[in-house]
Amino acid sequence: MEMPALSDLLDLQDVDLEIDRLIDRRQGMPELEQYREANAARIQAEADRDAVAAELRSIELDLDKAEGELEILETRLNESETRLFAGGMSAKETEHKRLEVRSLEGQKEASEERVLALLDQRDVLAEKMSASQQMVASKRARETGLEEVIKSAWRDIDRDIGRKEGRKAEIVPTIPPDLLDLYEQLRKTKQGVAIGRLEHGNCGGCHLALSAAEQKDAAETDPARCVHCRRILVF
pTM score > 0.85 for this model? Predict the structure, then answer.
């Protein structure tokens, strides 16, 4: 195999390894895990807010109903008191109306207490809702901030990858197809390192020493292959 092709293959491997490192950097950004945590926190905060909102709506419906019932009781009580104070009824009718007024007064008092209790609950939930909304806004801001950091970093990394891919496109046509196929196969099983130089008797791929006899055996294959790791060997 001609040395220029192997030299080009070494250049290609350098470019591929740089692309691999860029991809690893893209996928291994610490902000990605932080973003996943922030996203989960924002979703949980929204769920908590929605639960409070549902409870608040339920209380407001109960309050509307209780206030309506109180208004009806007040109207009935006023009518009954007016009729009682107007007189003109028999003793039996007057006693019946008096008892009715007393009953309505009791119902009105109980209804007022229920309205006040619901108002207190509504106020507590309204404060809780406000805090929940602020929490959602805080979590969303954290998530958005991380998203912008990631997007900015990815733009830079993708730009670098694009340049490397352009350089790779220049190198690939200079390498014989069969050598390129072997290179790609080895890269898949050799942690991306398919070719290495023999330097000071050591394989540049596995870094193991080759004896003189092993070097001779390696050189007899086309292309030369390390007897230990089977990577392509450049003498």
Answer: no
